[in-house]
Specification:
Blueprint lengths: L1 E8 L2 E8 L10 E7 L11 H11 L3 E5 L16 H17 L4 E11 L1 H12 L3 E7 L5 H12 L2 H21 L4 E3 H5 L3 H13 L8 E3 H8 L3 H4 L8 E6 L11 H7 L4 E6 L12 H17 L2
Parallel strand pairs: 3-4, 3-5, 5-6, 6-9, 9-10
Antiparallel strand pairs: 1-2, 2-4, 7-8
Helix pairs in contact: 2-3, 4-5, 5-8
């Protein structure tokens, strides 16, 4: 019940996989979940979305996972990931594709995003009222504040200001030559050392179509202009579930998930896992995260 498909987003061809539940009645239309992967990842989210797809299919939910522009097997320059606008458009166009897919109930579509994909889900849902409910795992609340926090905590404010000048210089260079320069993701996002080591390990074990190691400066400029904290206010009364981990050093929960929760109207829920790190679909929080997702979907997608 799995099929490779493609759709168009602003005339860019994007590929994905749609997985349908088994034993669908001939006249039945099922709910659907669109999965939104993280920064530099791809449709499988390093295997996390494969596991999640199986679980959602077993609940009777169709699942669509795809590669954003600049990632995976998208027909677009690898590493050019404009999350604030192009990714948002990609997700809204993915919703359009799913809403027209055979045996999908267009009135029961949810978004499930992880990390940057969670933030893009929030921004897309704020503009697209076809979305019935949202689940955001480890989302970023404000792109500028997020990057600034990483740089000032793990490097220095002086180095952050210098980096901002590099981003601006690249904008000017792109305007003249039509090309944004590349840099390592690790150099751009200024994570803690333990995450920098993880990035290098992932780079060794996954090819460039599964993990985007080099990114365009334009990608960082796009993050700096992101404001999910403002977008989330427009989603109510549609239900929003926010999940985060206390040990997350990439997207700290207090300045991100907590602030997003405070800005959401009703209906909402915030779950903070004491032992959770950034990847909540991995151990030790895998089973708890899946349980929260299943409960939310049963309450606000399947049975609503």
């Amino acid at each position: 019940m799995k099929k490779n498909v493609f759709f168009y987003s602003n005339m860019i061809k994007l590929g994905g996989i749609i997985s349908m539940p088994e034993n669908i009645a001939e006249d039945e239309a099922v709910p659907a979940a669109v999965l939104s992967h993280g920064y530099g990842a791809s449709r499988d989210e390093f295997g996390d979305f494969l596991i999640l797809t199986e679980i959602l299919n077993s609940m009777g939910i169709a699942v669509f996972r795809f590669d954003y522009r600049g990632c995976g097997r998208s027909d677009y320059p690898l590493g050019r990931m404009l999350c604030n606008d192009e990714w948002k458009d990609d997700l809204k166009n993915a919703i359009s594709f799913v809403s027209k897919y055979t045996r999908v109930d267009k009135n029961k579509i949810c978004l499930i995003g992880e990390s940057m994909g969670a933030s893009v889900s929030i921004m897309a849902a704020s503009e697209d009222h076809r979305v019935k409910c949202i689940i955001a795992l480890s989302p970023i609340a404000d792109g500028y504040e997020w990057i600034k926090q990483n740089w000032t905590k793990n490097k220095s404010r002086k180095e952050f200001d210098s980096f901002l000048r590099e981003v601006q210089e690249d904008k000017e260079r792109e305007a003249i030559y039509g090309q944004s320069n590349l840099l390592k993701m690790a150099d751009a996002l200024a994570y803690e050392d333990r995450y920098l080591e993880l990035i290098e390990e992932i780079h060794k074990n996954f090819d460039d179509r599964e993990f985007t190691y080099h990114i365009h400066y334009a990608s960082i400029a796009s993050i700096l202009s992101m404001r999910p904290i403002e977008a989330v206010k427009k989603i109510s009364p549609r239900p929003v579930l926010l999940l985060a981990g206390k040990k997350d050093g990439i997207v700290p929960w207090k300045m991100n998930s907590q602030k997003l929760y405070e800005s959401v109207g009703e209906i909402k829920k915030l779950v903070i896992f004491d032992e959770g790190d950034h990847g909540l679909l991995a151990e030790p929080t895998k089973s708890e995260t899946i349980s929260e997702i299943k409960d939310w979907l049963n309450n606000y997608l399947i049975n609503s």
